[in-house]
Amino acid sequence: MREPTAPKGDAPSIERRALNRSIFYLTIANVGQLLLWWLLAQDYAQQKAESVSSPGFSLQLIAAGVVSLLIWVGLIVTAFRRMALWKRHGQ
Predict the structure, then answer these.
(1) Which of 15, 26, 53, 80 has the most CB within a 10 Å radius?
(2) Low-confidence ranges of the chain (pLDDT < 50)
(3) Is 39 inside a domain boundary?
């Protein structure tokens, strides 16, 4: 005999799809952020090679750091939500 299955639109599957989508978008954002950090490092190396004095932390660097922090917090929170869903529904 077949086991009864939950309907396709049940709450756990909807929540699971939403979490998977969040993880996907945050991962794409994280890859973009890594590219931004690489570009900033290239710019910094070029400035050092040209001996251009910089005034310390640039606004770009601070903004990149804040965005990185937000992305990582989003990934961590989403991962914990996903683990809680697995514990609740065994999936």
Answers:
(1) 26
(2) none
(3) yes
